[in-house]
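Quick look at the format.
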Amino acid sequence: MAALTDWDLYIDGAWVPPSSGERFPTLNPFNQQAWATISQADEADVAAAVAAARRAFEHGWRQTSGLERGRLMNRLADLLERDADRMGTLESTDNGKIVRETRSQMKFVARTFRFFAGYADKIFGKVIPLDRRDMFDYASMEPLGVIGIITAWNSPIALIGNKLPAALAAGNSVVIKPSEHASVTTLEFAKLVEEAGFPKGVVNVVTGDVRTGQALVRGGGLNKISFTGSSHGGRQIASEAALNLTPVVLELGGKSPNIIFDDADIPKAVAGALAGIFAATGQTCIAGSRLLVQRPVYDRVVEGLVARAKTIKLGNPLDLATEMGTAANEPQFERILSFIRSARDDGAELLAGGDAAREGELKDGLFVQPTIFGNVSNDMKVAREEIFGPVLSVIPFETEEEALAIANDTNFGLASGIWTEGLKRMHRVSRELRAGMVWVNTYRAVAAQTPFGGVKDSGFGRERGEEGLKEFLTTKNVMINLSDDERDPFAVQT
């Protein structure tokens, strides 16, 4: 067995061991073998990282021109593109997602860095005309300061790409805390930050379990927190951050409705529905886990789904022929299986899958069969709670009004999909869906330019696009008296 790589913390431009000396193994979900050890940062380590970020912000980074920030970000994008295959392999080893997707994600993150690098020297203010001509007023956009970034295990670098480029373009410094279940690529990413030439302390990485996250959120010194994870985790972070009056951006869970109308291109819709739930092993907040199908095409859609689901190739995530990888970790694997048991107990009709996959090369891995339940009622647990796995609930409906009622009958509001050839219906249903993202005749498409985020229990704030940049800026207003006249100090200065 090869020696494990011991990973230190990245603080103030240096690799430093954890103060406590505590480390823990990270497991490859394909074979359950330890392949690296991760540092457990304690309160002292986190405080050191926040202090380093504060020094970097106050004594250099905030004064760095947008042109220079953009140059560094473009250089980092170059390096990420250069190492996309290597980084994708590492991430697939760490969380079991197929390497075709992780490599693609690395390149998309590079694109996102380039998008925000272009914004870095274009953060404009505005002159505001006042009632009095002897007063001059302008508002400027300024960085917030130190940003805490907390990411989940399903797509570590992609989630960093939703947050870090905008934060850096705006002129902030950051402390990143990745999930303890998938930290390796975030640490490797810090090496690219070094190579790109960012000043020390601008980007810091602290690893560890929930104790590290609590130290970051509770410790103070942050000007904003951006978190991706479960709704339960988001509530905890928002509550803790409120004690320090720290604002938050929360990108949380989803139970997204994917609606197929009877006028849809059915083969295209079936392919989109499959990708919406089984891509990334369903371990994505935007998974189209509730498939609403209009009655006249219900049997045809189900037949297509089941036939294709049974052919999905499970296997080594590093094999380019593999179509679906593993659950990312043991707790998530058990959680997915528990939801499958619950759906069967509640009377949902099992159409495909329904168990762990253990045959052949899958025997040691955390594999779950692509699972489809039919004739699901929207009040069943399988349709109400986020599973974060390859489990599809197919729900029939009769009318457009019923489809909207079912789609919006959820605590979540992150993503949604519509499949129809009717132009008026596209606009009508898009308008009425209560979700932050609506896809029409596609699903899981992403772009650096478009805002992303949810409503209700799916969180608040936006990532990517111009709206994502604004999350990391604050407005300063400056009002200047141009007159030499003395005025009554007690009069209202309108």
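Next, a different chain entirely:
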Amino acid sequence: MIKRILILCVLLLVSAYLAVAVTVFNDKPAGQVCQGIELTVKDSIDYDFISVKDVNTILKRKGLSPTDKRLDQINIRQLEEALSHQPFIAEAECYFTSGGKVAVDIYQRIPLLRVMSNNGDEYYIDNAGEILPIAGKAVHVTIATGFIDRKFAQTQLYQLGKFLRSDAFWDAQIEQINVTPRQELELVPRVGNHILFLGKAEDYNEKFRKLQAFYTEALNQVGWNKYERISVEFNNQIICTKKEK
């Protein structure tokens, strides 16, 4: 019985400590002024789409800049809402630091492909299949050119972009996708002077499986510059066009 009472007392003391700690750490002392913004980009790659200056500009434009405001007058949820609606931000988390600043943790929208359509339309497709405006700074991703409308980009090209990103070999190998007037796909590899022809935008797993087997078993033997065009358009066959001498 005494042991149970002691355990209960310890639990009560721990609970009381946690309650006090949460209150203290979340307390916004009356009159304390915000010392500015502390930005952290949480993604593994910082594409430099957003900076502290950008965050300050966005919040000032909306009349929500926390700098020099009293902490008890700052609505953290309003800041998160304002930032999360910006084109290059997927999610924003805001909270107060012990030094009296507002910490802003940003999760970016990640570019998957850069589309440069023959109609003059230019944008990124992000990893959610959404249109991402060109930020003014180049991001090293595969480029898609040719006869591309936005619907095709967000469906067939998006699926191809996801496949390439998921496969380390092909992600490193393919530098350009070209879409023909018939919406067939031509790929430009980084190694070799040939064109890879996929045909219609479908059956990616099977087509790239055949290509990788051909790369491994044939091109390593005959050389990387023997063929002008390698087609996996049709099932169960690979059609190669030799270069003219």
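The first strand starts at residue 37 and ends at 41.

See the schema section for token definitions.
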